[in-house]
What we know:
- The chain is of the alpha/beta class.
- It is built from ten helices and 18 strands.
- β14 (249-254), α7 and β15 (269-277) form a beta-alpha-beta unit.
Amino acid sequence: MQKIKAAVCHAFGAPLVVEDIMIRAPEMGEVEVTLDAVAICHSDISYADGAWGGSLPAVYGHEAAGVVSAVGPGVTGLSEGDSVIVTLIRACGTCPSCASGKPTVCETPYDGDKGPIRTTDDGKLHQAMACGAFAEKVVVDQKQLVKISADISKEAASLIACGVITGVGAVVNAAGLRAGQDVVVIGAGGVGLNAIQGARIAGARRIVAVDMTEEKLDDAKAFGATHGVLATGKSPWRASYKALGGKGAEAVIVTVGAIPAYEQAPKYLGRGGKVVMVGMPHSGDTATYEPVILAAIGQGMVGSKMGDVVIQRDIPWMVDLYEQGRLQLDSLISGRWSLDQINEAIADTKSGTARRNVILFDRS
């Protein structure tokens, strides 16, 4: 085993501790990646705050990019020196969900307590979300990786691993948006901005962003929203109807985990429209609806995990869009931090003003 630096969560709600940990060599089908960048996702923060429980101590982080530094036996298509995006999607490839093209909801469990990382005194250390990327290196299954060109900046590439595929995929895959349809995106944070980009790329007629501040609505318009609606106003769905020319949307993408957003989401829909649920409320939070309305006019609600992506299919075309200048990544980054500054970066993310904060590793 080798010693590396990682940001470890020892207690829910407490600051992460940057310390030495041990990581073993890759085993059958696994790859070691030396990281250049890892973005901070709100899911990491929610886990570290104890919103969904879990095993401690733990290393979080799941939006990463780096270079392959070792490969285990049985690995194909990847070699030392390859640039890769690291995702949390550890798909077995053979369960009913994987076999039907839905690897994001793979049914084969993974026990992060028995993963590749340990404390320096050989104690348990949980590899959260099958990734544990708030660390200098990760060892993950080869199916979690997508090879990319070395010319693409790793800080931009790291965003694709979760926030981009979740937002774009929610529109393209989960909502199945067709050109000319209308979209409402509730929440103009990191995932919301990517849902807006996805709607723009898919050819939406009009894209209405809904958020709590004018600043976030300005952000949304920079990424492709045609209209902005303040969620703080009375009956904001009425303003959305007006923006859409007196109709509801074919798709409403909820990218925040706020219960009021979920309860209001169906009110933005048109007949036959669909709410796509992306944002993750805390465990135990509930929302209420009047189902007769949804049933009477053919509306629906569906959850979408990680944009329903198949990473080997979807990430390459998103990378290509970025290379063409049609998918914005660099402008999503609002702050660049070192691993030692991770708690400050998390606090900045919690403030609600950041698009995406990225931890950069100094490999000089």
